[in-house]
Amino acid sequence: MIKRNLLVMGLAVLLSACGFQLRGTGTNELAIKELDVSARDAYSETVTQLRQVLENSGVHVYTGATYKLFLANEKENQRNLSYASAGRASDIELSTVLSFEIQGRDHLPLMGDNIQVQKIVSHDGNNLVGSDSEIIQVRKEMRRELVQRMVLRLSMITPEQLETLQQQADNKAKADADALKAAKEYEDNTPKQSPVEVPVE
């Protein structure tokens, strides 16, 4: 027994040294170490959970960070997939779409996308209370999955990528500003035509 325990411990140390982790035993390491996280609905459960998960993953979440994750919109939908006769359950599709944008310096948009989660539940017309409770529970699970997918998306982004996108956004903003300035100067330097006077007979 002692030898087997020592063998197991030895294997665990060896695997750990190789960087191996059992699923669920470690936190998700993100290359982004600082992030400002906000949402159109500042008190939504999604943004609250997301902040907690990011902080648990080693990200310093605070207002004023160089890069900002903005949850622009979270939309929940529900539609019937089948209509059941009396005494039978019908299938309902629940979906949630989260629209997000990552902003850089001067609030310039760097990237944005949508994340969608879908689930199908059975709705029992003879047990409305139980069916509604199940839908509420499934919505909570969908929110957790939405947060996990958002963190996974962030884990694929590096500070170097964000800096490259920031430079591109800066160049575009400067080009747009120069074009607007040139158009205004052209308008200011173009002689204005005097209104045509109609002779009075």
UniProtKB/TrEMBL annotation:
CC terms in the record's Gene Ontology section: cell outer membrane; transporter complex
Cellular localization per UniProt: Cell outer membrane
UniProt entry tagged with the keyword Cytoplasm: no
Alphabetical list of InterPro entries matching this protein: LPS_assembly_LptE
Broad class of where this protein is predominantly found: membrane
GO BP: any one term: Gram-negative-bacterium-type cell outer membrane assembly
Record's signal peptide: 1-19
PROSITE patterns: PROKAR_LIPOPROTEIN
Pfam families given in the database record: LptE
Keyword terms: Cell outer membrane, Lipoprotein, Membrane, Palmitate, Signal
Highest rank taxon of the organism: Bacteria
Biased composition (Basic and acidic residues): 171-190
Transmembrane domains' residue ranges: none
Disordered: region residues: 167-201
Presence of the UniProt keyword Ribosomal protein in the record: no
Membrane topology: Lipid-anchor
A single GO molecular function term of this UniProt record: lipopolysaccharide binding
Similarity comment: family membership: Belongs to the LptE lipoprotein family.
Subunit structure: Component of the lipopolysaccharide transport and assembly complex. Interacts with LptD.
Stated role: Together with LptD, is involved in the assembly of lipopolysaccharide (LPS) at the surface of the outer membrane. Required for the proper assembly of LptD. Binds LPS and may serve as the LPS recognition site at the outer membrane.
Annotated protein name in UniProt: LPS-assembly lipoprotein LptE
Gene behind this protein: lptE
